[in-house]
Amino acid sequence: QVDCSEYRRLERGRPIYCERLYQPFCGSDGKTYNNKCSFCKAVLKSRGTLYMKQAGVC
């Protein structure tokens, strides 16, 4: 399970900018996300329906 709480604290309507660090996460949608930030951004957009399938590339 990935803790995305630090990204929820951002003001509503403001974009979340992610660093270019590559530490891949595999989402339940079969997509590989570059890092925790990009994964959490997708989780928030999905309203919590997306979850981490595994650490690393899908």
TrEMBL record:
Source organism of this protein record: Tricholaema leucomelas (pied barbet)
Residues covered by the Kazal-like domain: 1-58
Subcellular location per the Swiss-Prot or TrEMBL entry: Secreted
Protein name: Ovomucoid
GO molecular function: serine-type endopeptidase inhibitor activity
Keywords for this protein: Disulfide bond, Glycoprotein, Protease inhibitor, Repeat, Secreted, Serine protease inhibitor
PANTHER family: SERINE PROTEASE INHIBITOR KAZAL-TYPE 7, SERINE PROTEASE INHIBITOR KAZAL-TYPE 7 SPINK7
PROSITE patterns per the UniProt record, alphabetical: KAZAL_1, KAZAL_2
Pfam families per record: Kazal_1
GO cellular component: extracellular region
Keyword field contains Glycoprotein: yes
